[in-house]
Each structure stands twice: as structure tokens, then as C-alpha cells.
Amino acid sequence: RSEHITPILAHHLLFIVLMGMPVEWLVKTMQARGLEVFTQSFTRTLPFPDENKERYMVRGTNIYGILRAPRAPRTEALVLSAPCSPDNSNNQAVGLLLGLAQYFRSQIYWAKDIIFLVNEHDLIGMQAWLEGYHHTNITGMDYTPLQGRAGSIQAALSLELSSDVITSLDLVLEGLNGQLPNLDLANLFHAFCQKIGVLCTIQGKLQRGDWDTAEGYTHAVQTMMLMVLKQASGRPWGDHGLFLRYHIEAASVRGINSFRQYKTDATTIGRLLEGMFRKLNNLLERLHQSYFFYLMPSLTHFVSIGYYMPAFGLLATILLLRALDLWVQLGTPAQVTEDGAGEVEPVSINNQGVLSVLTPVVISHLTGVALYTLPVLSQETAVEHFPVSETEAVVLTAIAIYTAGLALPHNTHRFISGEGTEQGWRVLKLVALLYLAVLLGCTALINFSLGFILAITLVPAAACVTPHMPKALTALAMVLLSPGCTLLYCVFIFQELQEAPVTLPEGWMLFLSVISQGILDHSLYGSLVYPLLALLIYPCWLLLWNILFWK
Amino acid sequence: SYLFIYLFYYITTKATQFFNSGHTNNWAVLVCTSRFWFNYRHVANVLSVYRSVKRLGIPDSHIVLMLADDMACNHRNPKPATVFSHKNMELNVYGDDVEVDYRGYEVTVENFLRVLTGRLPPSTPRSKRLLSDDRSNILIYLTGHGGNGFLKFQDSEEISNVELADAFEQMWQKRRYNELLFIIDTCQGASMYERFYSPNIMALASSQVGEDSLSHQPDLAIGVHLMDRYTFYLLEFLEDIHPASQANMNDLFKVCPKSQCVSTPGHRTDLFLRDPRSVLITDFFGSVRKVEITREAVNLTSAAEQPVEATKEPKSEPLSYVDQLPVAEIIHQKPKQKDWHPPDGFILGLWTLILLVFFKTYGIKHLKHIF
User: What are the catalytic residues (chain B) (predicted)?
Assistant: First the structure.
């Protein structure tokens, strides 16, 4: 079988040296292979220019060819996609895709239709295609409806190959909002890598054989921490990430060409993909037998939700215990000399306590809303008055609003009629603790890594803060434990784990670009990290800040 | 004269052996209970036994073939219209003349039990009925996924060993079989014949309780396992059997020893009246017509003298239907092993003793501390 693939692939790889997206050529080639070819065009204007990928008004075309199963009804489909980038960095993948299309066409054992998709502008094109395929419009994209359809998609693979020989294949699993495909897909990839003899990695790190030694263990922890950080960021780390929202198990396979002696050629990759597709073809149901929530320290080991969730549960228990303690303190009134006076006071204190609590809560949430909406809305006015680009304007406005929130407690107290009381801050802290516990719990259920990272920094702050602590020191500690600084640490740790450590100024620039990417991900693909942090976590942290400065 | 006596003795023993089995027709009920492409091997199992049974003479009208899924025309089959049992596609057991009686979703526990007991609606065609009588030898072959005491049908229901035993007892009481050979190739297959209690049943299974039956070999072009080990070696054994073969059941018990099968095949013969050594393979797997060639004239008129003797016999008391049949007198069943309990009185006495000692030592007034 492999003898057939080589001449087909060589033929294709030679042809793809064209600039931009050769739409007509791709359509013609796919039709010549016997596929049913359709195109879809889409346009999208980003809220502000994306400096990483250098695009602002995006206009593109997706091309997909459907290989119909020879004997089966058209009820199920598999997708093989390769993003076509304007700088020709993924041309080998497109060539491999076309070669596989020709080979697959001559087989009769396909029970599902196979869609070969070449999408432009990677994630934006993929989002347009998926929205068109499933007749939804979640993100406000403008696209032409799809002319051809193939049934419900059971699984998808996305291919990224930048050179015709590789030394290893990297598997990317993390998707939008930290969603992961079924673990069976990762096991399938690993099984075929073993069988065909290709080196395969996850997070770009090679697996070590020595699990018992300290170095082996540290290596595994580093790999797992990389996965945690990538999952917490909530962005899709490959084109596959957008499929997961539609309950389609998908993964990205990335070819890496490093300085090793043993190189694998495209034919072997083709055989690996063919094997994976044949296995997926034999499936009778969607992948559901294995875990959906896991962390992988290596390709052969995983930590399931049953193991890592109790760790988070213990952190949440701290908050609940502290809240219980406060509830008890609030419930037993202070021992007064006269019993009569002691009974009358709690009633009025509670009423006043509730009112004085409501004001900081409302103001904190309004600040959160400002942090969510103002950066994007006010970029034009910012650009007029300051010599910065739009992206910088957005990011700097966000940071400005964030730090402006630190000044709030001094201003809030002007709105409160009476003085804040001892009971008042306790009530506020009780509300803040319960709010934080619910928030972190819900976040951890959906995206465990994000919930856990936020819990590590916020739970100590929330549990310990009282107005009676030394203000300057505690204020510094609170700022260091705030969500913004947590993001900064994560950026540095991420770079450190990738073995590409950055200096402080570089890290700061990276931090700014991370914020802008977060805002863009939210408006382009519906990522929930930025709204969560701005609208819910940040106001919660502001409540704690208010407690610290309670008078 | 000694030679004459010896020959006479030899002929009579051959004659008694000749009429030993007592069956006049053969039936086969072959069932594959699992569907889905990766259970290809179960369909191949059943089709191999079908092939052997047909080759040895049982016609399609006497075979009830139940296949739960269609492998030959499955979309995933790279060689459509074939079902192979040997790798490298040596043997296609789905030939041109396979007649499937129950197909696809018709293979259910209810239909299987109705076929066995004969309780089918009047509209059922003849090809779907087991029209056996009390002189039929029936071969029942089951394969699929099973466990301790059950066999899974179609991924949605199960038949238990108790149900199967009761179905066979119904068959016995309605005299729907003379002798029954039950073969099962599933994981923990021996559990399925543990509960049989009707006479004249011989059972074989591919594995004991707690063991899994393993599949034989995958074919790399088709991509699935083609056969299970037990049936693979059974097929090899049956390929050597021809209609005149004198191989007996003891040879069948030796098929697929542990070295080849990895699991331990089991068999059960305590309910069977005849000695397995004297049971031919073709009694169940083939449809061998017994032909007696005689060179002498048979005298039919001498029967007229017998009624004179019959009237001299004393009147015997009327027997019930069941008692008239000879088997009812002969059958001995082992008494069921009950688990041993200590006698009830002993336990009562023990507790009384404990209570007496307690109250003697501590006195009655301590009762108030308990209540």
C-alpha cells in the first residue's frame, strides 16, 4: 500500500509553492481526485488589529472536498483539515492531504464520508466553516452558506506540517475553553506512532523512560504543568479546538523538524494517518468510552478527574470553613453587659450591614463591567489622544481600569451614610467568600486548570484578609495575588517550562499580547476566560480589597 | 462351528450398535448473537459450523441459521460478499448457497426460545421453524459474548443458563428431541450448561467459568479477527469427518486442548444415556441415513401366532403417559448438593448458653444498662 502513496505525494508536494491561497487550483485538483468540491467565503472585522498575526479585516475562502463512502448512507463523516496560511508554512500538510484524498478514493471500505478541508486564516476560517456546517452563528461572522454537506461529523484531525521530513509528531489536545477530546483519540495516536515507529511527543516534550528517578518525575510534572497552563488560557491551541464545542472529538497533529538524525518522510505520516482514519471508520458510535477530563504528564500516562478534583475540593473547603466561621461569629452577638440591649442591637446591625454590603458589591461589579466593555469601546478616543496603536490602546486601557479599581475603597466610603461597622465587614467577607467559592467551583467544573490556578492565588487572600492586618504589607500581598499578577506569573512560568525563558521587559510585552489575545479570542471564538476574569473574578477580588480597607 | 458362532455374535453386536442411537432425522440450530463489525469472528464461527453441517448432509430445510448482523455486505468489509475464516482469505465460508433464516434484529432471545420450544405464531414460515420430533437429534451451536451464567444477544439483552435449561426441559416434555448436542463458544461458556437437568443432553463449551475464550488470528487486510480459537480447531477437526466416518464423541472432546486454545474446553455427559464412546460425530453433525442390507427374506406371517400368548399375560395397571416411556425408569439424577448448614437447634442452643453465662456472671440488674 505504501508504494502507491509515494508517487502521489511527490507529485503534489512539488506543486504547492504558490503564493496565497490557490483557490482555483485546489478546486481543480480535488475535483480531479474524484471528490465533491465546494467553497465557502467569509469576512470578519476584528474589534482591533491583531498584532501577532497582523490582521484586522479578514477575508478568506475555505475549500473542502467530500469523499463519499461507496456503499454507506451519508449519515456520518470524518474530517481531515489542513490550515492554509498566507506564508506557505503549511503547504506540506495540504500536499499530504491531497495525496491521502487520492489514495482514500480508491478504497471501498469507507463507511463514513470523509471531508478534506483546507481552511484559510486558520481559526477564523475554521470557525466560519463550522458555523456554516452546523447552521449556527455564535460569533457574528459573515459567511456564505455551505453548499455541500456530509452528515454528522464523528471525529476530526487537523494537520500542520511545515517540512517534508520530520523528526517527531506532536499531538495537541487543548481546545477552546479548556475542553479536551476523548482520551481514546490520544491513545489511538500513540498506538499508531508505536506501530509505525514514529517518534511522538506531547507539549513538545519527549517522554522519558525513568519514572522512578527525581529527574523523570520533574520532567513529567513540567509536561503536566504545560498542559495545565495551556488549558487555563482557554484558547484553542490548534485548529481542532473549535470542533470540541460541537461534541466532535478532534486533535491536531503537528510535525516537528528538529536536529535529529532519524527523519520520517511524508509517506510514513500518510500511513499513520491512514491507519487512524481506518480505525475511526470502524467506529460505530461517537468516542465516549474513555475520559473527557484528564491531564497528561506524558503520552502514556494520564491523571483522571477523580484524582485531581479532590485537590481543588480541599481548596474550596477552606473558603467554606472560613465562611462557616464568620456565620457563627455573626450569629452569636457580642456579649453585652445588659441583656436587653444585646438582644435589640443585632437586628438593626444586620439591616445596616446588608445595606453597607450592597454598595461595594454593586460598585465592584460596575468596575468589572467597565473593565469588560471600555477597552474595546474607547480605543478610538485613546488613539486620538495618545501616540499608541489600537491594540496597545486597548490593552493599556484595560490595565488602567484594573489599577483604578485599587483606588476604589477610598471613594466607596463616601457613598455610605453611616460608618462601616465591625459586623459590616464580616457580612461583606461572608458574601465574598461564598461568591468566590461558587465561582471557583463552577469554573473548575468547566475548566479545571483555570479554576485551580485562580484558587491557588485567591483562596489564601480571601481566607486571611481582615481590616485589622497591617495595611501596607497586606495591600502588597493582595496585589501580588490578584488575577492580573497571576496572569503575569503564568506567562513567565509558561516561558520557563517551554525552555525559552524571557527577561522582564520581554515578559511584560508578552503579558500585554496575552491580554489582547484574550480579548480577541472572546470576540472571535467565544472564549470565556476574559469575561470570567473581568466580570466575575475581578469584582470578587475588589470586594476583598474593600474588606482590607474597611473603616 | 466356532467361526460360525463368532460371526453370529459379531453380527448381532454390530446390529445392536447399528440401532443404538435411535434417531431418524437430524436438525441444527446455529446462532450468532452479536452484531457490529468487530464481531466478525462470531459470524465466521457460525458459518463454518453451518458449512460442515451442510457438507455432512443436513439440508437447509433442517437447519435454522440465525445471524445477528450482516458481515458480508457490511460497508466496512473490504471484500464484499465474503466472510473468511482463515487469514490470507483461504476459505470463504459465505458461499453462494448460504440460507439465513433469522437475520439482523430478528435474532432475539424471544425468537430463539420460540424456535426451540416450537411456540411460534401460525404465520411463521417453515424455514423459521424447528419441526423436530421425538426421533430427532438436534445440534445447537451458540456463539457470541457471554459471561458467568448468561449469553448476550445483540448488545441489548441476555439469555441466562436457567432459561436455557428450562427451554430444553420444555423440549423434552414435548418430546421435541431424541438427543441434543449443545456446543457454545463464548467466554465462560461452561456456565451455560451447568443448569441443564433434562435427559439426553451432551454439552461442550470452549472455556470454563472464569476463563475467556480467545480469538484466533486477525487478517491484516480485513482488519478484524476472523475466527475464535475453539471453533477454528473444531472446523479443522470437522473437515476430516465424512459421512461414513466412525469418529466418536471422545475425539470431539479432545478438540482444542489448552495448549492451542489457551482456555480449557469443557464438556458434560452425565445427562446423556449412551456412552460418549459409542456416539458417532455424524449422529449430530451429519444426516446419515441408516441402511440395512439384508440377503434373507423377512417372514411377516409368523406374527399371527403372538396374540395367543398376549392374552395369557396378566392385566397390568394403567400407566401414565410419562411412565410408559422407558427413559423415565432409567433416569438417575444426582441429588442436588445443598450447602451444609449447622442444624437450627444447635444454633439456638448455643445462643441460649451464651445468654445464660452472661446473666450468671453479671447478674440481672445489669440489664438496665443495656436498655
Answer: 145, 187
* Cβ atoms B140, B192 nearer than 8 A: no
User: Which SS3 state, helix, strand or coil, does residue B330 take?
Assistant: helix
Please say whether the beta carbons of A518 and A527 come within 8 A. Answer: yes
| B contacts of A71 (beta carbons < 8 Å) | 73, 75, 80
pTM of the model: 0.81
pLDDT on residue B137 = 94
The confidence band for B336, taking pLDDT boundaries of 50, 70 and 90, is low
pLDDT in tens, A368-378: 999 999 998 98
Structural element, H or E, at residue B310:
helix B306-311
CA-nearest residue of chain A to B72? A109
Report the complex ipTM: 0.73
Selecting from B36, B38, B77 the residue whose C-beta is nearest the C-beta of A109 gives B77
pLDDT tens-place string over residues B64-107: 999 999 999 999 999 999 999 887 778 899 988 899 999 999 99
> Cell 495545565, residue?
A228
Q: Which residues of B are catalytic?
A: 145, 187
Amino acid at B140: I
pLDDT of residue B314: 58
Q: What is the pLDDT of residues A333-350, one digit of tens each?
A: 665 444 444 444 444 445
Whether A58 contacts A93, CB under 8 Å: no
CA distance linking residue A447 with residue A177, whole number of Å = 7
Instruction: Specify the pLDDT at position B333.
Output: 52
Q: Are A388 and A396 in contact (CB under 8 A)?
A: yes
Phi, psi of A332 (to 5 degrees): -90, 110
Nearest-CA distance from A270 to chain B in Å? 17
Tell me whether residues A282 and B38 touch, CB distance under 8 A. yes
Residue A59 and residue A86: Cα distance in Å, rounded?
12
For residue A208, give the amino acid letter.
R
Q: Backbone phi, then psi, for B316, in 5-degree steps?
A: -95, 155
Q: Which of residues 74-133 of B touch A (CB under 8 A)?
A: 74-78, 80
For A79-134, the three-class secondary structure string (H helix, E strand, C coil) is EEEEEECCCCCCHHHHHHHHHHHHHHHCCCCCCCEEEEEEEECHHHHHHHHHHHHC
Q: Residue A1: pLDDT above 50?
A: no
Q: Residue A344: what pLDDT?
A: 44
Report residue A2's pLDDT band, with 50, 70 and 90 as the boundaries. very low
Return mean pLDDT, chain A. 88
Q: Is the dihedral of CA B140, B143, B146, B148 positive or negative?
A: positive
> How close does chain A come to B292, measured CA to CA in Å?
55
Q: Find the closest chain A residue to B36 by CA distance.
A: A284
In 3D space, the residue among A337, A348, A325, A158 whose CA is nearest the CA of residue A254 turns out to be A158
Q: Hey, is the C-beta of A283 within 8 angstroms of any chain B C-beta?
A: no
Tell whether B37 lies on the interface with A, counting CB pairs under 8 A. yes
- pLDDT tens-digit profile of B203-258? 999 999 988 888 888 888 888 899 999 999 999 999 999 888 889 999 999 998 88
**B34, B38, B71, B75, best to mutate vs chain A, most A CBs in 10 Å:** B75
Cβ-contact B235, B100 below 8 angstroms: no
> What is the number of CB-based contacts under 8 A between chain A and chain B?
26
Chain B nearest-CA distance from A103, in A, is 15
CB-based contact, A104 to chain B, within 8 Å: no
Q: Distance, in angstroms, between B78 CA and closest chain A CA?
A: 5
- Give the pLDDT confidence score for residue A413 in this predicted structure: 61
Q: Which of B37, B73, B80 sits opposite A282 (nearest CB)?
A: B37
User: What span, in angstroms and rounded, lies between the C-alpha atoms of B69 and B42?
Assistant: 10
Task: Kindly calculate the radius of gyration of chain B based on its CA atoms and give it in whole angstroms.
Answer: 27
Candidates B154, B155, B151; CA nearest to B167 is B151
**Is pLDDT of A356 > 80?**
no
